[in-house]
Amino acid sequence: MTEDRNDSGGVAHGKPDPRRSDDQGPEVNFLPPLEVTIDVPEFRYAKLRRIVSDHVVPRLLALHNEAAANDDEPPILPHASDVDALASLVLGPDNGEAFNFVLSLKDRGISLDSLHTALLEPTARHLGELWNEDRIDFLDVTLGVARLQQLVLVFEGLDQVANLDDKRRVLLATAPGEQHSLGFTIVQKFLRAGGWHVWTCASARMEDAADLAAREWFGVIGFSLGSDLNMQALAQTIAKVRAISLNRKVGVMVGGSAIARHPEWVEAVGADGTAANGPAAAVLAKKLLAAALA
Questions:
Q1: Please, are residues 148 and 120 in contact by the beta-carbon 8 Å criterion?
Q2: Which of 175, 206, 181 is nearest to 189 (CA)?
Q3: Distance from first CA to last CA of the chain, Å, rounded?
Q4: Which DSSP letter does residue 194 get?
Q5: Which domains does the chain have, with CATH numbers?
Q6: Segments in the chain forming alpha helices (H)
Q7: Residue 173: helix, strand or coil by DSSP?
Q8: Residue 184 to residue 12: CA distance in whole angstroms
Q9: Which residue from 29, 40, 239, 245 has the least number of CB within 10 angstroms?
């Protein structure tokens, strides 16, 4: 029997040789050659190593280089005209057009996070500005914000979360010594119009909001900051909220005149986002709830 070892194939083959009988009778041959395949482990591993080194590793390196190149590219963001267009669509008769418009922007390469921060929330702020300028009435802006919230539902998959209404609980708090402002009241109004169960906390101790969050489940907690002097107290309170809240994934948003003067404080105090007015707060709260329930 001949033996052939080939490490590129990882198998060994053997074939019987034809033989002639010693007498003078007719020629006798064996049956047609039979190929026997033997799985030799060391050959199999050698072949696997070559496949990985010759094909898999170069492909992984190529994908890594592509990802690194993409990371260097600036994100694609909506234009100001997109905000105006979406505002007009959510105020129109058919919300399906608004959905298709946002979907087209997503197909353009805009990320979901950018759609929230650079489209949905600015559109909500724009609706609030139109309302302040008496260019639309409260019914119009409420309808528009509700439709924006529906877009958040669609793109975050919140409609698949059971008992969503029970989770739509928000706590709004002010810094010590600060009175409920008109903006604070308007935020409450829009959240209630959006189906939120709104709790408020105005206390001499900002930490009381954290203590309340330790006793009651909230999807979102919002703080209003008017005075620069309370910035450190707000940061400490938010840290305490995250440490003792029943909902350890609670979303935290901040607003107020101090935040408007110092937008960099949103990150400094440990919040997840800010909203300039009631419509924007309603949309941001829905986004934060989506993250809390993810």
A1: yes
A2: 181
A3: 66
A4: T
A5: 2-72 (no CATH), 77-156 (1.10.1240), 164-294 (3.40.50.280)
A6: 41-51, 57-72, 80-90, 95-107, 112-115, 121-132, 138-156, 164-167, 182-193, 207-215, 231-244, 257-261, 265-268, 278-293
A7: strand
A8: 81
A9: 29
pLDDT in tens, 191-227: 988 889 999 987 777 788 999 999 999 999 999 998 8
pLDDT more than 70, % of the chain: 69
Which two tokens mark 285? 């709260």
- Closest among 257, 184, 244 to 216, alpha carbons compared: 244
| pLDDT attached to residue 203 | 76
CA distance 227 to 249: 27
Could you give the 3-state DSSP secondary structure of residue 141?
Answer: helix
Give pLDDT tens digits for 45-100. Answer: 565 556 555 655 555 555 545 544 455 567 788 888 999 999 999 998 877 888 88
Task: Round to whole Å and give the CA distance between 252 and 270.
Answer: 8
Whether the Cβ atoms of residue 62 and residue 23 lie closer than 8 Å to each other: no
What gap in Å lies between CA 135 and CA 127, rounded to an integer?
Answer: 9
- Rounded Cα–Cα distance for residues 258 and 266 (Å): 10
